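Methods: holo model generation. Sequences were used as deposited, without trimming of termini or removal of tags, and paired with ligand SMILES retrieved from the corresponding compound records. Each pair was processed once, and we did not select among multiple samples. The sequence and zinc ion SMILES for this entry were:
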Amino acid sequence: MTNVADLKQRAIATIDALRADLIQISATLYAHPETAFQEFQAAALLCQTLEAHGFTVERGAGGLETAFRAEARGSGDGPTIALLAEYDALPELGHACGHNLIAASAIGAGLAVRSVLEQLPGRVVVIGTPAEEGGGGKLILLEKGVFADVDAAMMVHPASYTMTARPSLASNRLTIEFTGKAAHAAAAPEDGINALEAVLLTFNNVNALRLHLKPDARVHGIITHGGTAANIIPDYAAAEFSVRAAQQSYAQEVLQRVVQCAEAGGMATGAQLKYTIKPGYAEIIPNPTLSRLFTENWRAIGVEVHDPRPNERMGSTDMGNVSQALPALHPYIAIAPDGTGGHTLEFLAAAISPAGQEALLNAAKAMAMTTIDLLSSPEMMQQAKQDFAASKAS
Ligand SMILES: [Zn+2]
Ligand SMILES: [Zn+2]
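and the model returned the structure below.
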């Protein structure tokens, strides 16, 4: 009989021994930020590291050049636990979402589990999932069957508050384009059809709609094309919206209302509307068993873990789609003072700070410990699957 506490101690010792290497990985990614689907250097570095530590690495998993799947086998049949690494950065802002820390924590957890895997059944896989910030790498990997044999998946995300069970918002991307007719804006405006006015009306209509949306709805957009010169009636204008809500069903409903806002803008101006909807990120289905195990492990190594507060601020993640397909966990690690928002310069600084690096090591330890729990206890694995089945049925 394997002593689980002993295995966990050895896994923790592995992470402590790799401390400098893991911090270096996060710093290297930070120094070379790569955006969605362009994460070539990051993927190469992570694959090399996993290979050097005995993982069998499949590069370009699911047909995505910057995705990968690295696998290590224990002794005998058992569940497959996936540790997910995100490593895409934001345009302009670099690693202001701290995905460099996500990647390093997944590698740390993978190597730690690998170091005790001869004592455990089953497999641990580290899956490199590109393009979380728009692009939805995990949706593509799910579709291509990369998760087909995975029993449970986990990752951690940097935040300003440590908690294991916060849900996320379902989200959809909407692009609207209006085509009008160019004309001299002073000499012959009556000959023109103003595509920009149609976009402005869309925004105004959305603002009129806001009061009547449920509190969890979020509609936010930017104008991506607004014309070429002030003295020409714009014949082309475009905008992008993100439409979110706690449940995908309501997010879809709001999305339809926003499309109507755009249609009304087109009708009022005479501009032709064309719109495209990108399949969005689903909301996270929390898994109580995985949350409980993770919280216990985090607390065992001295991390203070909080419950989500009422009215917790939420974003969206393609991990939501993973959690709709299998038992999954997406906890948050504090790397910045409470209240610091992601995608800001403050958060960017936190992603390379000593506090961020400490958080990454603690996250790696808790993930390794939770993976050991799941591989060593068929009962806990079964319970996580039952939670998943129950949430899908409700
Ligand atoms: Zn982000
Ligand atoms: Zn993020």
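The pocket of zinc ion (ligand 2) is lined by residues 97, 99, 132, 157 (CB under 6 Å).
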